[in-house]
Amino acid sequence: MVMLVLIAMFVLVGYLWRQVQALRERVELLEMAPGWIPVPDQFETIEPAAPPVPLDPEPAMPQPADIPELNAVAEAAPAPRGPIEQAPQPERGWSFEDIFGRRLPIWAGGVTLAVAGFLIVKYSIDAGLLSPITRVIMGLIFGTTLIGAAELALRADEKVRDPRIRQALSGAGIATLFAAILVAVNLYHLIGPMTAFIGMALTTALAIGLSLRFGAPSAILGLIGGLAAPALVGSTQPNIPLLTLYLALTVGGLSSVARHQRWWWLGATALTGGFGWGLLLIFNGLLDLSQTLSVGLYTLALGAALPLLLVGDRAPVVRLAASIAGCAQMAALVALGGFALLDWGLLGLISVAALFLSRREPVLAEVPALALGVAILLAVSWPAPMANALALVLAGIALIHALPAALRVWTPAARSIDAPILAGSALAIAILPAFHFPHVAPLLRAWPALAGAVMAAGVAGWGWSDRTRCTGSRFAILAAASAASLGFADAFGLAEWTLPGAVALLALGLQLLGLASANRHVERTAWAFGAASLALLLPNMDEPVNWVAGDWSTFARWAIPAAAAVGLACTAPRRVAQIAQALAVLLFYSACAQVVPGDWLPIVPPLLLASLAATGREKLWPAAAAAAAVAICWAVAPLVEWLFRGGYSALTGEPFYLSGDALWPTLRQLALPALALGLTAIRLPMPQRARIATGIAATLCGMAAAHIAYRHLIVIDSRSDFIARGIMERTLWEMALAIVATAAWALRKPRIALLLGGAALAHFFWFTMLLHNPLWCDQAVGVWLALAYAIAFALVWASDWLLPDIRRPRGWAMMVLIALFAFSLLRQIAHGSMPLRLGVDGTEDIARSVLAIALAVGFLRYGIAKTASDWRLASLGLMLVAVIKVFLFDAAGLDGLLRIGSFAALGVSLIGVGWLYSRYLPDASR
Fold it and tell me: How far is 483 from 501, CA to CA, in rounded Å?
């Protein structure tokens, strides 16, 4: 096992040494003067050999000077103006011969020598030739001999010419000494653990000393052996103070060598191993005061003192890593040590060291903030602390972290972490006592929070004397910490319902402070506090007011933030002011919801919206938008129900009965929002898209409210009511929509006019003309049939003003209306008010054919007059239908003069149509 460890150690040493050599070569090449490419030291110097003597001398080649043409070219070429630079030689790679012939054999030889020492000892053991003590002594002698051989190789460097030979010999000797000591203590038990420990320490010191003479391999072996010695020769009950002293000396010695040789990697590796031992000791448990103190001081040395020994470009990074590791390890010491005051004191020492180091190295400037964060986290996780102990810890935080930052924050030497450290200290003082002692009296919990607020506000007030200081982030951080501490004081000392209002007032105060100091950071902090007050309000949205006890707390919970939002809307920048306006409206409505009865609550948003719209101020449109949103939310339920029932009636053809709809909910949830939205669209300046959306919403709500109220005037609650008054109810509704659309057109609201007119026309086409047409549905038409078709025709005709680009669809709609009205009127003339009740006699059938022919002639005349091909095509279609009807149906059921009359009328009509085409459309045949 020991042999395997040694082989692994030598392999590691070889790898690390190769990396170090490569780095050294790169540094040397970078530091060289331009134009000089040195040959690395490890390259062999090859003496030039004597030129061979040729057996048969060949004739000499002609030289350039003997050739006239070349002489002429050389004379014509310009002479060089400076020294000719030597072309860079290509770097030699690691070939197979270089690796296995030059590099590996030397290190393999060192490993072989170390293994040979072990084999000698093993042979003596197997043969029983030597006693255990003799074997150990021989191992020590062999290791010493190898080190002496390394010294001889150094002295004979002119002959050896390879530094790796002495490095391999010294490394093998150090490994042999370590192995001999381990065999003496673990295998033969010739010496005790303490003696072996001292021997390992002396061997480590020897390795460190030899590294200064022979190079890095000895230092690496000293690093491995020195840090592994306590584990290899340790006892079950180690002396922790002595062990930490040994480790500190070992890491310190290695760091000193690293400083002398400028090997930053050696110091970083030694510190890493030292921290590993520290964590191992902490997690194994520290039993008494001396052990805790020794491990704490050892951690302090690793985190603050020993990293100062390192030099070089990477030394600051190593110091930063060591400081972070030291803080983390000290936190583990405090947590696992039961949060004793001694542990806290050691954490304070490393915090002071971090503060000191932060002044020396710019890279360590943020470490004090890290130490403060570790202390606060430990204080939060402290289980059941005593009040006096917690007070001492908080006092220590204030003295170590807050006081130096307060003295420096407004000076030219201030750093970016000073204000955050002050803020963190103030918040820790404000929160931690109430966190650990939640059951004490409210005022006692509030006092530390007030102290934290006073501390942060006092330092901020110190900076207020010079207004140039108040424009930066330092003032904003301190103001935010003071405001937050005041908020915690309210949360700890007063009733719960006061907290949202208090935070909202703090937001308003910060906003005013930001304006006074011209500090945008403070203003942004105010906006964050405003958002926090909203977050505090959300869990209590449905809390009722206790009117019996006269409890207005829930009303004040919402009313105070609403007032603060109004203040923010008046003082904040434009975007934030717009958001604050909307929030003020929502909070005011929520406050009203706590005191206004439920039946009257839907009136609040429309009244608020109307009052905002009546001002006519453009800046108030965000508040109006919030009020409109709340009003629309109240309108959604009845509007969706109205649309659902109307859609069901439209899809199935079932009558839209009243079904007990109440009028008051319609007025308060639809009519009032419609009026308020309409007033807003007309009166309040706003973006055009918002105005269009507001108008559409007002129109929809108004249509739904008017329709529901209208159905309360003409009640249709049964099938008989629908037959008697269905067409009257639909016609009057369509006429009302058409009248409002006309008024909107007159008021130059074309979109509203188009929406209302389209709704009236769609209502007629779907319900009166398709679903409930008197030609196939029981309806008492009366005078309402002609009025319904007249309204529809007028709307189609007037659509040319709003939609001039749809003339062809408009013409087809007019033709359909004329044709259906004509046949419906014929049916009503023949059968009275109920066209569907009686059958069809011969006279009516003939009248239908004559009517179709008359319509065909009329369509043709209109199409000719307006040059509208669609009307002429419709005329031909009607004429074709009439011809088919006469020949197939009318002629079959008639005889005598009626048959003759029908054919005669058809013939005259056909001739008349042809004449019209030939007279007015001579090119129609082509």
Answer: 13
576, 581, 582, 583 alpha-carbon torsion, rounded to 10°? 80
Q: How far apart, in whole angstroms, are the C-alpha atoms of residue 402 and residue 456?
A: 10
pLDDT at 551 (0 to 100): 55
Name the pTM for this structure: 0.60
Chain-centroid distance of CA 198 in Å reads 58
Indicate if the pLDDT at residue 383 is higher than 80: yes
3-state secondary structure 575-598: HHHHHHHHHHHHHHHHHHHHHCCC
pLDDT reading at 484 higher than 90:
yes
Burial letters 769-793, b for 16+ CB under 10 A, else e? bebbbbeebbbbbbebbebbbebbb
Q: Is the distance from CB of 229 to CB of 279 less than 8 angstroms?
A: no
Residues 259, 310 contacting (CB under 8 angstroms): yes
Q: Supply φ then ψ for residue 400, to 5 degrees.
A: -80, -40
Residues 64-82 pLDDT 10s: 444 444 444 444 444 444 4
Q: How does 345-372 read in b/e, with b if 16+ C-beta sit within 10 Å?
A: ebbbbbbbbbbebbeebebbbbbbbbbb
3-state secondary structure of 703: helix
One-letter amino acid at 826 equals L
Average pLDDT over residues 131-155: 71
Yes or no: say if 230 and 247 are a contact pair by the CB < 8 Å rule. Answer: yes
Q: Please work out, in degrees rounded to the nearest 5, the angle formed at the alpha carbon of residue 639 by the alpha carbons of 638 and 640.
A: 95
DSSP 842-911: HHHHHHHHHHHHHHHHHHHHHHHHHT-HHHHHHHHHHHHHHHHHIIIIIHHH--THHHHHHHHHHHHHHH
Residue at 250: amino acid letter: T
Token pair belonging to 910:
């056909």
Identity of residue 910: L
For residue 398, the 8-state DSSP code is I
pLDDT per position as a tens digit, 585-596: 999 998 888 888
Q: What is the Cα 179 distance to its own chain's centre?
A: 58
Q: Who contacts 753 (Cβ-Cβ below 8 Å, separation ≥6)?
A: 741, 742, 744, 745, 802
Instruction: State mean pLDDT over 676-693.
Output: 86
Between 379 and 471, residue with greater pLDDT: 379
Q: How confident is the model at residue 88 (pLDDT cuts 50, 70, 90)?
A: very low
Q: According to the model, what pLDDT value does residue 239 have? A: 64
As a whole number of angstroms, the distance between CA 367 and CA 347 comes to 13
CA geometry: angle 427, 386, 350, nearest 5 deg: 60
Per 3-state DSSP, the chain is made up of helix, strand and coil in percentages (nearest 5) of 80, 0, 20
**Which secondary-structure segment (H or E) carries 831?**
helix 807-831
**Per-residue model confidence as pLDDT tens digits over 562-604:** 999 999 999 888 888 989 999 999 999 988 888 888 888 889 9
Can you give the pLDDT at residue 548?
37
Which among 87, 118, 157 is positioned nearest to 6, based on CA atoms?
A: 118
Q: How far apart are CA 898 and CA 891, in angstroms?
A: 9
Residue 313 phi, psi dihedral angles, 5° rounding: -70, -30
Flag whether pLDDT at 744 surpasses 80: yes
